[in-house]
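Continued from yesterday's entry.
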Amino acid sequence: MVLAPGSCDRRALSPSQNAMVSVIPASQVSIALLEERYGLRETTQPDFFGEWTQGLGSLTELEKQYLDRVKTHFKRLLKNPPLLENSVKMVVLSPLLDRAGFYDDPFHIQSEVSIDIAAEDEGQMIRGRIDVLVLKDRFWILVLEAKRSDFDANVAMGQALAYMLATPESEQPTFAMVSNGQSFLFLKLTKTPQPQYANSRLFSLANPGNDLYEVLKVMKRIGKMVTAEPQSD
């Protein structure tokens, strides 16, 4: 597959093609580059990403108590920085995936998923590994990017959007969550008729109360939306 400005097809390149292109690590990709090479645009439509504000359910008291323990465990570990990516996934992301139901049917989890994104006639390719990918059949539901505790979650937006552009499905939206354990940012991307995205507010465990409540509600909302809508072949 070949990318032209305004399109979003992907392919893995053959060894002979790889020799002709320069590789950009996904961790170094900026949103400006994605806008220039792949026609990505940030949408200003207020209803484009309503999933993080609308139709959110409520949590049980047991769920809230569980998330309070997750926050306590994270803050305890944070006293001895840095908290590395694997620790973020173990202490914070894994409990959220469990409570959101993403370990259960019809979803399945893949980790360290390799992706290549090539642009036609640009002589460059973006290459990276998705930390955690939640799928339903072949459809990408949620891309999770974990960072060490001292990493700004906003900085990883370009990397997450690059991964989202690599989804093989062009008709359904793709969602992502970027987290350093303390901060959480959701993204939504659609590919037709032009790649466009929007982001949620930044949720943070530094805020009073426990923002994990809202984070889990959003994750559940995304999961319910996907299972409620029939997917095209």
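--- second protein ---
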Amino acid sequence: MVINRSRLFQLFKYTVYALLTVNVYLFFSEEWAASAFRFSNGITLSEIIEGFTASIDTAAWVVLLLMFELETYVLDDEHFTRRVTWTLHGFRAICYTFIVYSFYGYLSSLLFFSGAAVLPNITDLCALVDGTWAYAVDYDEYETLSAANCAAMSSANSFVHFPGMSTAVDPVGYRDIIGLAWVDVINSAVWLLVVIVLEIDVRLQERDKLRGIALRLSNISKYILYSILLLAAIYWGIKGDFVDFWDAFLWLVAFVLIELNVFEWRQESEERLNMSTDSTV
């Protein structure tokens, strides 16, 4: 049996895209469960971005990824009519709106968690067991305190609580939550820079100008940006949960695949240019 490497590669690529789509559901499930604690009195329209930042962000990125896939691989150059071009740009503009909005959501969450205050006169977590208090097991993961689980949650003798929430966490757990909140903000900002560079790449490639110093500057900037994203993924793998790490890893793979699309597109353009040059000699 002969294995078609090209088809195998495409199968791998679209499997990665499908797994990223599944992550939208996974993040929504986590945030839906967390919203019951963080927004116990109900969530308002203006608070949706704070409560479901990762879900909205991931969904917007999946659509944006598909737009890049269409432009850099699926559609040939002759398919880029004015209508197709404006449609792709329109969808991407909508995605960028939600992505920037999500950055605001991550920043808002960081500010929210940074507003935690010390719980006075509480030296034993079990003193909070009354059916209303919960413990912050992780970033956006809470568990209602009970007589059966309070002693196992933490043996610390001081705790903080988040504003407007009956939720406590010990100092070590709080530092981890703040660290994860900061990584969310940094990761979101860096990804925005990645797509800005990629947008410039695509626009230059459309004009056959992605070469020389422009190409070198693009490669250097993306090397730095992807390195930061890899460090964020490693941090999530150590401090966060598996879904955060898995999602970060898949996004790195997905955009490496888009980069390969752009590379192949550039190679094809150079081959056409060389053939055109040879035919005129």
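The chain has eight helices and five strands. The mean pLDDT is 86. Will compare against the first tomorrow.
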